[in-house]
């Protein structure tokens, strides 16, 4: 009986030694982090996406089947305008989005056109303002027109 217990203890110790060499568990990493010791983290370097790739992807997504994807594309174009990455191709892609069937897409497109800062978008925005029924989209259209004037 004593021999069996001794074998179990040795096997458990051997298993523990093998597992401890694999790395730190979550609690140990947290403890070391709180003490100021950061265990090495492996960061995988990815190539940066070019401005044209991001722009063309967003423009392509403006014609997606999903209204949410179209809205996200317009918002992404808006963020690109805010960061100074304006492009003339944005105007020709965002103008048809003002006539989208979904109000959130129309609103996001209006906001993006306002941030684009191209005065040639004023005519498209005013034309949409005349037929728009949604008060939320109208507010976005008014805000865009104020920025462009």
**Count, helices:** 8
Secondary-structure content class? mainly alpha
User: Beta fraction of the residues?
Assistant: under 5%
If you compute it from the alpha carbons, what radius of gyration comes out, rounded to the nearest whole angstrom?
28 Å
Beta strands, count = 0
Helix content class: 55-70%
Approximate shape = elongated
Low-pLDDT stretches are none
Descriptive account of the structure:
The protein has helices at 2-20, 26-34, 51-61, 67-82, 88-97, 103-116, 122-131, 135-148. It has 149 residues and is mainly alpha-helical. The longest helix is centred in the first third of the chain and has 19 residues, at 2-20. The N and C termini lie far apart (92 Å). The mean pLDDT is 86.
Short description:
This protein has helices at about 1-20, 25-35, 50-60, 65-80, 90-95, 105-115, 120-130, 135-149.
Topology:
Blueprint: H1 2-20, H2 26-34, H3 51-61, H4 67-82, H5 88-97, H6 103-116, H7 122-131, H8 135-148
Helix pairs in contact: 3-4, 4-6, 5-6, 6-8, 7-8
Entry keywords:
149 residues, mainly alpha
